[in-house]
Amino acid sequence: MKWLLAIGFVVATSAFKNATVNNKLLPIDYHAFNLGEKLVYNIHYGFIDAGMAIFQVADTMHTVGGKPHFVCEAIGKSYGWWDNFYKVRDFYLSYVDSQSLYPSVYSRNISEGDYKSLESYYFNRKKQLAIGQHDGEESRVKIPLNVHDLVSMIYYMRSFNYGSESIGKEIPLNVFFENEWFESSMEIVGEEEIKTNLGRFNCLKIVPKLVEGRVFSGQNSMTVYVTADKNHIPVRIESGIFVGSIKVDLEEYENLKFPLSSFIED
Are the C-beta atoms of residues 15 and 171 closer than 8 Å to each other? Predict the structure, then answer.
């Protein structure tokens, strides 16, 4: 799950816009992604190519509670030598309301070495409860109205407009993860040019505040680079964990909604 935590915190950067009014979720009038969008990442552990992650949006909407929803998937798997050392097969699924971009249904199926976990939840916004099952047991978790799962958070935060006034601000967010929710925050610290296998990009540089002691080596142990264009795509994540470091790089993309104007022509 570490790979998704890394990418998940990438784009949760623009939550300074109030998401609720009178205990109701506000609609989002701007989407940074299309139906059918696909992003592929390579995950490096030190100098080793350890695995890959895929984020994709289904080609069609799905109806939940009478409302159209985006169907968003995140898939993570190890490969090569790392597969023999610590095999990872992770699958996350989120049904995201097309108006508010908050999730209604969320599930994950995790297989990481000897660790296995299976959970699914329905988010009841009126009662502010996450209702479902966690590893075979019934679960009801009290949640704030404006809480995301890790997958919905990515698409939600991509769909806010960045501006120069956001640099230097600390931004709060609520995330549901492993049968509980927690508060976090992050800061957009500036802009930087990043060189990847795909070329060079103008990016926003982001430092999230992480949950120290669960996965990461310190509260400020991650740096994130997001394209400085309307797509707001995570290009690179660098993070220190308990043992070593992880780097996640964008390798492929399909069906982007906007031109990749952050790309720097040579």
Answer: yes
